[in-house]
Amino acid sequence: MDTEALRSFVRAARLGKLHQAADELGVTQQAVSKRIAALERELRVRLFTRTARGVELTPDGKAFLPHARSVVAGVDRAVAAVGAGSRAPRIDVLGLRSAQAVVLHEYWRSRPGTRLDVVTLRVDDPREAAAAVAEGGVDASFRTVTDPAALPPDVRMIHAFDSPLELLTGPGHPLAAARTVTPAQLRGHRIWVPGIAPRSEWAEFYDQLATAFDLRIDAAGPHFGDEVLLDTLAASDDVATLVGARDRYVWPPGHDLRRIPVTRPSLAYPLSLLLPRTHPHPGLRGIIAHLGGLQERPAPVWLPSWAATTPRPHAPRRKESAHVP
């Protein structure tokens, strides 16, 4: 059933004159007459009788009017629900303790009243996250498709921010007392990153990192959760892992874990944002501006190869870091 015909009927019933209904709707009186006539043919009843003063509802028209009003009101609510600024932007992050979630929380706190819908897609392949953006399942996703040719044509990828890495160890680890460590000092130590998923962006990141600095990245075993990882580190004298400087971890005081910055060069995980190429959610503008204002990591910094090809959405600031091959 044509909702514009229903809208014309409801408006004419309220005003009692077809030309006034046409004026309010911004169409001609002939268009309103045709819509109502088509509606009467579809319903096989007369909705109005014509009088010298305009139109009056027939008994069938009176019975039909409240239902037509309900349909028109429902359509208006549906349109308003997806109008610019009416719905909170739905944004995918890797986890609610991840650096992306922390940065979004900082943005939300800096702008009271901002609406955000933060979700975690249960996918490891970033191309699946890109497909969710293309299909409208989410408005944006903090994922990186390392091969730009694999992006859907209606999705673009921009640089979000770089997440510096820290070494996380238990108190008995040989490097536990260090204030900072270099990649060279990590050589020979077991760096346990359980559950690295094939085809994930972090699988490619750790492959490049291990090759660049001759590191021992151990992905053995499934990832049973952060609690199990932290318990293992606390009890081990030879196992460490790498975490993002902004990632949020909480452990019992007795674990006495140590977060140690990696320097000379620092190691950074480049985070990207996937969003629609056309008609992105208006709420993303403020988020992108916030990302552009995040402090860069001091030079020198190592980044994986794809970081150099990911465009930045903001005007370049004074260069504070450089790619270290």
Short summary:
The protein is an alpha/beta fold. The chain contains 10 helices and 12 strands.
For the structure shown, list the relevant keywords:
about 325 residues, alpha/beta, 7-stranded mixed sheet, 3-stranded parallel sheet, 12 strands
Explain this structure to me?
- The chain is an alpha/beta fold.
- It is built from ten helices and twelve strands.
Average of the residue pLDDT scores = 90
Distance between the termini: 63 Å
Structural class designation: alpha/beta
Helix content: 25-40%
Along the chain, the helix and strand elements come as: HHHEEHEHEHEEHEHEHEEEHE
Number of strands: 12
Query: Gyration radius, to the nearest Å?
Result: 29 Å
Count of discrete alpha- or pi-helical segments spanning 4 or more residues: 10
* Outline: elongated
Largest sheet: 7 strands, mixed
Low-confidence stretches: 315-325
Question: Beta fraction of the residues?
Answer: 15-25%
Topology:
Elements (H helix, E strand, L loop, with lengths): L2 H13 L2 H8 L3 H15 L4 E4 L2 E4 L1 H23 L8 E3 L6 H12 L6 E3 L6 H10 L4 E2 L13 E15 L13 H4 L3 E3 L8 H13 L2 E3 L7 H10 L3 E6 L13 E4 L4 E11 L7 H9 L8 E2 L23
Parallel strand pairs: 3-4, 3-5, 7-8, 7-9, 11-12
Antiparallel strand pairs: 1-2, 6-9, 6-10, 6-11
Helix pairs in contact: 1-2, 1-3, 1-4, 2-3
